[in-house]
Every structure is written in structure tokens, then in C-alpha cells.
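Continuing the series of single-chain predictions for the mutant panel. This is the parent chain; the variants come on the following pages.
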Amino acid sequence: MTLLLKREEVTSLLKMSEVMDAVERAFEMYAKKESVQMPPKVYLRFEKGDLRAMPALIGSYAGVKWVNSHPNNKDLPTVMALIILNDPETGYPLAVMDGTYITCMRTGAAGGIAAKYLAKEDSTKFGFVGCGVQAYYQFEALREVFEIEQILAYDVNKDNAKKFVEHCSKFDVKAKCVSCREACKCDVLTTTTPSTKPIVKEEWVEKGTHINAIGADAPGKQELDEKLILKAKVVVDDVEQALHGGEINVPVSKGIFSRDDIYATLGEIIAGFKPARLGNEITVFDSTGLAIQDIATASLAFEKAKSLKVGEEVRFF
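Parent structure:
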């Protein structure tokens, strides 16, 4: 039987702390090459967006996420995803589930994990450039790691920034709407925009800052000033994806940044192959989003659903 899990069912099954544990283990397994396969993303590009196939094997589960990115959608979400989880031994589809919430959660989890290893341990002030849907998941993950005292929020859409500030304020956090420049004056800066040109300038970022660069996940996207990238310690989730579609893709295409300039993958740091933060340096986590994150999170949802008898079972074959 194949288990069908709707959005509301997946949402009920996943807690950020558990997703972070699963994603952190996936990064570590990937670095150690332990029961992991992850071919490159496959893109179908359209006039108004794209579709991506993201397959992976992680441990005892294989699967694929089929996800779109259509930034101009009005009556539909800009990102929608479906995940098929398979048994590697037989190929049988164990589950078909909503992948949109999983995408949100695993992306937030990656940011929290990166900050855990790369930000200053006593970080209290957090800046956000971009206050759309993903900012909420980044905030949730960061709360699992730090005692957040202050939030500085900027968005080109002032209503988005205001709503995000109101949300953060519910958690006994001082939060306010600020300029983009002021949002950068923080311990940890999170950028979650679809920008195709730098919006965070090098001179705005102080020594010791950690940056989670989340928005750039396709060729041509860019949120950070190239001079900032050149002076920072850059950590990526996956080298090939980052080179072609991450925050570093534009500097790479211009020939001013190369593979050799990447300090490490996040998995290498988690696995202890390379040290994390050293002193008062600027660190950048270039997050492109990996299929291993999706399958690790989907397998967590599947196992909890089976245990709690959530979802509908159907027979396809």
C-alpha cells in the first residue's frame, strides 16, 4: 500500500527540532558518503517560472521532489511541491505527500543548522532582508539554537515586514521594521529574497556577522555584494549547485570567484572535517536546497505517519 499525506497531515507530523536533527544528519552523511546518492537537479524552464526534479537516496529511503518556482503567482503559492518516497529494495512507492511544507521546513532547518556552526555562540541580534513565507521558518529554526533578543526586519513590501515583526513579537522578542542597511547591523543576517542583483552591500556588514544567504537558488539570482562574498568565509550546502545556482553563481560567472574559494560544505563542518568559525570573521552560508534534505524530512514524516496511523493508504499496483 502507498500512504497519501495531505498538506495538513504533513504539517501535523513535523516539528522544527526534529527536522533539524534529520537534516543535520543528512548533511553529515552526504559529507561522509554514507548511503547517499544525489544527482543534480533537473530544470524545465518556462516564461513565468520553472519546474525542478530533485531525486536522492538517503539511508533506507529514496525519492524525488517535483517542485515549481513561479514568483508571480497570484491565486496559487509561488512554490508548490510533491514528494514520492520509495523503497530502494523494490522501488515501490511507499508514500506520496505534499512537499511544499517540507520544502519550507527543511530550508528553515538548514539555516538554523548553519548558524549553529558558523555564527557567534552569543548571537542575540538577528536581521532579516526579505520577510516573506520563508523568513518565518528561518526564524523558527534560529529560535531552536539561540536566545533571540532583537529582530531587525526589512522587506520592499512594508506590509510583509510589519506582519513579520508582529509575528516575532509574540515570542517575547523586540522586533522592528528598519531599512535594509540597518537590518545588516546584526549578529546573524538572513536573506530570503528572489533578487537578481545585490541588495546587501559590503560596507553594511560588520566583522563577526554570519549570513544565511537563502534566496539565490537558480542561475542569475544574487542577494549579496560581490565584494562581501570575496572577503567572507563561504560555506555551501553543495559545491556544484552553489557554483551554478547559489549565491556565488554570479561572481563565478564573472570569473572573480571560483571553486577553490569555497571554504567547505556545511556537511564537512558538521562531520568535523574542517573547523567552523575562527575569530571575528564574516561567514556566509550559501543555501541552494538539497534533495537529501527533502527525502530525510519526508522519511521522518512517513515514519511518524505510520506510527500514528495518519494518512490514507491506497494501492497503485
